[in-house]
What does this fold into?
Amino acid sequence: MGNEINHQVRLAARPAGTPAPEVWQHVTGPVPEPGPGRFIVRVSHLSLDPAMRGWINEGGSYAPPVELGSVMRALGLGRVVASEHPDYAVGDTVTGFVGVQDYVETDGTGLRKVTPAEGVPTERYLALLGMTGLTAYFGLFDVGAVAEGDTVVVSGAAGAVGSVVGQLARIAGARVIGIAGGPEKTGWVTGELGFDAAIDYRSEDVSARLAELAPDGVNVYFDNVGGEILEAVLDRLAMHARIVLCGAISQYNAEGGMAGPRNYMNLLVYRSRMEGFLVGDYAARWGEAVEKLAGWLAEGRLHSREDVVDGTVDDFPETFLRLFRGENTGKLVLRLRSE
Ligand code: NAP
It folds into this structure.
């Protein structure tokens, strides 16, 4: 395609612990022409997701591992710039698995079209109106079975998924306690987002604060972080509590295996359940959920915050690490500058 250059970030080595710069290889090449039944997307936004850390492990996770030498797998969004595909025209906006690269040549597998509404920032389709919002929606309503009057605790509360979970729980008539790192984050969730309370796990004793804030126990715990915070909540369950196992970011870079909860027998004591889920399993119902989320957003009952970093695909490795340092508030997105 003309003289354009395609910058890519490929996986060069499997990381031990936090991915070092040597894990990645920066490659440039020509932009391909689309083959029959295929099209080219110019990627404009990359979604930074904690799950990407699991994708580069040897054993993979729920998805096969990214092969050494391959373009790093990533969700993102972009526009069709050339097409030999009957269903995709130049100018269409698509979202899904694009990879860490400027241009993707594809038959459309793993992508879907979106029609951006006027006045809605494009990055929101990777946030509240995309995978993030869908994760919060199905995790809380389907897996967590949240009900009016419940006490809900969510960790990673000022992150992409957690910030939506707390707001949805409020809409459901629950009392919401968020757990996040630092006073700015706790202030944001109890302020603009309307959570009932928040715990700063970096400066406060989580167990002691949970005892104060949830004296009758926790009905739903939406777990984004695992580790010690999961243990603290397991010690404060209400009878028949539901723990939504969404993720365990505190453990993703752990060397020598993940720490499991020492007190999991509380699930038996409190006749509770802990259930993992994957947002992809709900693909058939994504349309229904996005409609609801967009409706609440339009009514002002939901707020979406995107933490946008402007850069190039070469900024991916460093931007990715912000997730593990707690440097994002809301959904972390890398917006790609056109050269
Ligand atoms: P995110 O919460 O926006 O970003 C990560 C946040 O995690 C950071 O800002 C940081 O906030 C917190 N964090 C990092 N290290 C931590 C640690 N050691 N202890 C406690 N908190 C830590 O990311 P997200 O995209 O919304 O993802 C949240 C979780 O959901 C992840 O576990 C992810 O894997 C999972 N997820 C699952 C699905 C699914 O289908 N099951 C889909 C999407 C995401 P603080 O400043 O508060 O520490």
